Amino acid sequence: MDGLSSNERAVRNALYWPHDGTRKNSAEAFAAMATRRPVQEVVKALLDKYNEENVPLGDPSYELKDIVSYEPCFDGRGQPYRSYSHLNMTVKTKRADGSTCDELIFAEVTCTIDEHEQYALTCFCTVEPDDNGPCNVCGDEMKHPVKADYKHGLARSPIRCCSYGDADDLYDKLVTVRDEAWLKAEEARVRHMLKEVDEAIKKDRMKYVVPARRQMLMLLGEFGGQFHFWCEEAVNWS
After folding, report:
1. Of 6, 101, 158, 171, which residue is 20 to 30 A from 212 by alpha carbon distance?
2. Which helix (H) or strand (E) holds 117?
3. In the chain, pLDDT over 70 holds for what percent of residues?
4. CA separation (Å) from 43 to 85, 118, 119?
5. DSSP 3-state assignment of 9?
6. Which of the residue ranges 31-45, 84-98, 144-158, 214-228 would you say has the lowest mean pLDDT?
7. What is the tens place of the pLDDT at every residue in 27-76?
8. pLDDT at res. 72
9. What is the per-residue burial (b if ≥16 Cβ within 10 Å, else e) of 5-36?
10. 45: exposed, middle or buried (C-beta count within 10 Å: 0-12, 13-18, 19+)?
11. Rounded CA separation 88/109 (Å)
12. How many CB atoms lie within 10 A of CB 238?
């Protein structure tokens, strides 16, 4: 959004999805949401990065075939990461000698936030169907390695984070497809709201800026008309 004014950036942030730029509540956004597979996209990108860093060292390369199990994990505030996910996936492994085979992999993907979301493979290893490493979050269908370093998670709270009514309201607000007239009216509403906020901020500033400016000009006027003119021009430029 380089080159846009602060107001236009605020409008874009309010009305458009940041990941693909589609308009919220539009048919285009709904279609993109229905076909998008964000977990697969992240895992493929991380595997590509893993291959780039490790294949030159003689390690095998891995190609994603399918995600068998997926579990998002949240340990709450106070952690050095925002969240992480445990996955079982099948991959096609290609070794340095050219031989290939299919393997079952356990992966841990950790998400941290600095200026932007960042994802990293914090555990990546093969597992066997009978492996049963400890985890307080995932169910029995997830195969965890027995001898590997990964997050075991905190026991889940039985308290639901939001009601079904809240979820329905959020779905209606962000996902439900609206017609063109509604989309135009919503944009007009957002622009009007931002204009009111901007005018209120300017009005509040003027309560303090105008009296101070007048007082300064009156004092400077005692030192001669030309100096008064220069100072008033300087105030106008500031």
Report:
1. 6
2. strand 117-126
3. 72
4. 11, 13, 9
5. helix
6. 214-228
7. 887 777 666 566 888 899 899 999 999 888 888 999 999 999 999 888 87
8. 87
9. eeeeebbeeebbeeeeebbbbbeebeeeeeee
10. exposed
11. 11
12. 7
Please say whether the beta carbons of 68 and 61 come within 8 A. Answer: no
Q: What CA–CA distance (Å, rounded) separates 88 from 107?
A: 6
Asked if residue 101 lies in contact with residue 93, where contact means CB atoms within 8 angstroms, the answer is yes
Which region, left, alpha or beta, applies to residue 176 given φ > 0 means left and ψ of -120 to 50 means alpha?
beta
Residues in the chain: 238
pLDDT tens per residue across span 145-165: 998 999 998 876 544 444 545
167: its two tokens = 């979820």
Contact 186, 15 (CB under 8 A): yes
CA 217/CA 231 separation, integer angstroms: 7
Q: Which two tokens stand for residue 157?
A: 């709270």
> Can you name the residues that pair with 84 across neighbouring β-strands?
73, 110
Measured distance CA(74)–CA(81) in Å, rounded: 9
Contact criterion met (CB below 8 Å) for 144 and 135:
yes
Q: What is the 3-state secondary structure (H, E, C) of 147-164?
A: CCCCCCCCCCCCCCCCCH
* Helix, strand or coil, per DSSP, at residue 65: strand
> Would you say residue 221 has pLDDT above 80?
no
